[in-house]
Amino acid sequence: MKMNPLGRTGLMVTEICLGTMTWGSQNTEAEGHAQIDRALERGVNFVDTAEMYPTQPKIAETQGRTEEIIGTWLAKTGRRKDMILASKVSGKGLMHVRGGAPITAASIREAVEGSLKRLQTDHIDLYQFHWPNRGSYMFRQNWRYDPSGQDTAEVLDNMNETLEAIHAEVQRGTIGHFGLSNESAWGTMKFLQMAEANGWPRVASVQNEYSLLCRLYDTDMAEVTAHEDVGLLAFTPLAAGLLSGKYQSGAALPEGSRKSITADLGGRITPRVWSATQAYLDIAERHGLDPSTMALAWTLTRPFMTACIIGATNLEQLDLALDAADLTLSDAVLEEIEQAHHAHPMPF
After folding, report:
1. Would you say residue 249 has pLDDT above 90?
2. Which listed residue (53, 127, 210, 280) is catalytic?
3. Which of 41, 111, 138, 312 has the fewest CB atoms within 10 Å of its CB?
């Protein structure tokens, strides 16, 4: 499997990263372990999780269970060196994680200690801020996002405090490198400037949503990547399952699927999403491709991509996703994808 540099860290990660957010809710411990086994068997060396996982639903009763499942796999196999492990600290507002506290120096230390205990490891290779305290235009908030009310001095003070806390964790040996998630070009650049000015950890990557149906990263953030070597870790590359086609044309709702738990797929179900999705499904059909594999393989062609984060609830889905690493899309397919994008921009 192709390897890409993780920013300027010196680490090389596989272009496909194993996502884990269903483990502990939609997936059992045994199923999570089987997914790790299969992914590593097929060449993956990169696994992403978060202290708040699992999702679907996000509830106090299961919070942290995903990290625990990874931890029991590590304890059972002793294969920590075979995995580059990423996790995240939750941002402000998730009430069942530290009472919804924002990311601060104190909450970082508390969150790191909790994750290390659940993961049964002494270090996390990439530690990410799950979303910024000031808010984000991600998760369909871009339609009404308005940063004009933010207190710039307060925001910068918090960035400074939290990056210094990350530096302390790196010095302590608990984390290796630092990343962002659900972040903007301005926020990323400010963290980069602070890191350079103070000799603190540099932003290695940004984990934002990216798929055929969600291409916000193509503009300002792509420019950050090009000039600063801060690549994208793309989450939800199948648009929460829409691009697999399993929800299309009035198909019976798959039991246990994401849509069966969250009916609007987090705001992704709109009147225009069906025609946009169908355009990509039609391209796959014309060229004899599995639509999921095609959609994932397309993300791997993007010049700013460090890794595409895949998620699955069974091994069959996982294998289809992993097949993307072996699929080279033809020029004809790529041209048709661009035509579909122009005809159906930003459907949600």
Report:
1. no
2. 53
3. 41
pLDDT category, 257, cuts 50, 70, 90? confident
Indicate if the pLDDT at residue 204 is higher than 90.
yes
Using alpha carbons only, give the angle 243, 249, 254 rounded to the nearest 5 degrees.
Answer: 70
Report how far residue 288's alpha carbon sits from residue 326's, in angstroms, rounded to the nearest whole number.
15
- Which residue in the block uniquely carries the two structure tokens 């299961």? 62
CB count in 10 Å sphere of residue 251: 9
129: β partners? 89, 180
Is 53 considered catalytic here? yes
Residue with tokens 């004899």: 288
Is the pTM higher than 0.90? The answer reads: yes
Q: First CA to last CA across the chain, in angstroms?
A: 32
* Cβ atoms 85, 47 nearer than 8 A: yes
**Residue with the two structure tokens 């499904």:** 281
